[in-house]
Amino acid sequence: MINSLSGRLLVLTTIFVMLAEVLIFVPSIARFREDYLMNRLERAQIASLALLADDMIDRELEAELLENAGVFNVVLRRDQVRQLMLASELPQPISKTYDMRDNSAAILIRDALTRFVSPENEVIRVIGAPVREAGLLIEITMETTPLREAMIDYGIRILILSAVISIFTAFLLFIAMRALLLKPIKRVVGHMQNYAAAPEDARRIITPSAGVTELREAEDALQKLETDLTQALRQKERLAQLGSAVSKISHDLRNILTSAQLFTDRIEMSEDPTVKRMAPKLVGSITRAVHLCESTLAFGKAEEPSPTLTMLPLSDLIDEVIDSERLAVADADISFSCDVAIGMVVRADPEQLYRVLANLIRNARQALVAVGQPGEICVDAHEDEEAWWIHVTDTGPGLPAKAQEHLFTPFQGGARKGGSGLGLAISAELVKGHGGTLELAHTGPEGTRFSICLPKGDGTMRAGIASVQPIQAADP
Q1: Neighbours of 254 (CB within 10 A)
Q2: Are 319 and 252 within one domain?
Q3: Could you tell me if 278 and 308 lie in one domain?
Q4: Looking at residue 422, which CATH number applies to its domain?
Q5: Short-list 362, 292, 287, CA closest to 324
Q6: 349/382 same-domain check
């Protein structure tokens, strides 16, 4: 109970109300002391009237008047003359004098608290103004024990009343908060638990009904969140089913196309002019289809291990990629260059970095071949204190605007007609697995430039690796 929101609300409400009552208690006890002393002054003034009516009263009557007034002596100042009206023997000397005619609230509170915590019995003098202008002032002497006892009795009654008021107020506030706040919150929590059990079921989405503005806003936001999440889960499920089907189809289709690729090698040996003219196109189409199947399989699986980082000579790796691409452009006027220092080494997974550079250089080569003009592809690199930087630049026509919008999005960022966009998406994920980034530096009619950043810091690299889901490579 105490750990629940309602229990803590009840306890806190009781405590705060009690605190408020304590803050009220201090000035209240000061007010009670002032009224008590003023009452003693009035009673002493009334007792002195008997002497004004009759100058001679016996000792017994005087003692009775003083006892009824609760004082030892009564002094009345009239017409600039100070008169001792009633008197009796003081049990001890006067310790303090209090003037009740002009006291501030702070002084009254101070004197009241001092008397409240002082158990010693003292004789004090109290000075005040007579009622109904019956003189200039009136003085009395009295004991403090009856005053303190009366203050304690009054304080106990005030505290008991405060406790009752606090508990009753806290109970009412608890009931109100439970009805207006706690029950709606529990209802929202119940909806969330019900929705979490089957988020794909649209019938479980909350229907806002709270009357409190803030809760209604929370319910509206929760309804939108659940609606968007349900739609996203449905789409994700459809995409997962589609991806599974595509992966299976791509796997089988790749095997079929590989066999067909072997037959096209035989067809190219034919002496028929028509066959010779059509064979290269057929080979190119089959090759692209095989590559698409392999890329789809690579992206569709999520079981590729994290990169195995090692220090490797960058120029040797780039030369290996460029040599492979040169074989594909034997008839095209495309030149390759590598501007990397011979001794430069980087920390990376050799196989994964090879795939990234091969994707970028292949895309650049295909862009140049598509326009049918001479061009150049250059790979350069440098390093600073924080990272290694690798740049792949071509003199091609640049990327179209549509391709730039979804450049690293699978099946949407293809830069050429018929492209799937998987190459750049996979490359970006591989670089991200190294803790680095793959970005489009610039593109335009003068050419395109991609930049790879591989951080040197171990902490940054480990954080990057931990945050990336590995990608399964294509079947060999």
Answers
A1: 20
A2: no
A3: no
A4: 3.30.565.10
A5: 362
A6: yes
pLDDT at position 264 is: 66
Residue 208 domain flag: no
- The string of pLDDT tens digits covering residues 27-62 is 888 899 899 998 888 888 887 776 665 556 667 777
Whether residue 300 has pLDDT greater than 60: no
Q: Do both 245 and 320 map to the same domain?
A: no
CA dist 302 and 48 (Å) reads 105
**What SS3 class is residue 435?**
coil
Percent of the chain with pLDDT over 70: 75
Instruction: Measure the CA–CA gap between 347 and 390, rounded to whole angstroms.
Output: 12
Give residue-wise pLDDT tens across range 97-117: 998 887 888 898 888 888 888
Residue 294 is assigned to a structural domain of this protein: no
243-262 per-position pLDDT tens digit: 666 666 665 666 666 656 66
Domain assignment present for 206:
no
Number of structural domains the chain divides into? 3
**423 and 323, same structural domain?**
yes
Q: 436 falls in which pLDDT band (50, 70, 90)?
A: very high
Tell the residue number behind the tokens 């303190």, with chain if given: 148
DSSP state of 75: E
Q: Buried b / exposed e across 175-197, counting CB within 10 Å, b at 16+?
A: eebbeebbebbeebeebeeebee
Average pLDDT, the chain: 79
User: What residue spans of 54-104 are helical by DSSP H?
Assistant: 59-69
| Residues 212, 180 contacting (CB under 8 angstroms) | yes
Place 197 in a pLDDT band, splitting at 50, 70 and 90: confident
Amino acid at position 295, single letter? S
Residue 72 forms part of a structural domain = yes
- Sign of the torsion formed by the C-alpha atoms of 355, 360, 361 and 363: positive
Same domain membership, residue 276 and residue 344: no
Q: Sort 417 into a burial class: Cβ within 10 Å, 0-12 / 13-18 / 19+.
A: exposed
Which range, 180-189, 290-299, 447-456, has the best average confidence (pLDDT)? 447-456
Q: What is the 3-state secondary structure (H, E, C) of 127-183?
A: EECCHHHCCCEEEEEEECHHHHHHHHHHHHHHHHHHHHHHHHHHHHHHHHHHHHHHH
317 lies in which domain range? 303-466
For residue 17, the tally of other CB atoms under 10 A from its CB is: 19
Q: Which of 282, 312, 327 is the last residue of a domain?
A: 282
Minimum mean pLDDT range among 58-67, 120-129, 267-276: 267-276
Q: Which H or E run includes 400?
A: none
Length of the chain: 476
User: First CA to last CA across the chain, in angstroms?
Assistant: 62
439 and 325 both lie in a single domain: yes
CA angle 142, 146, 147 (to 5 degrees): 80
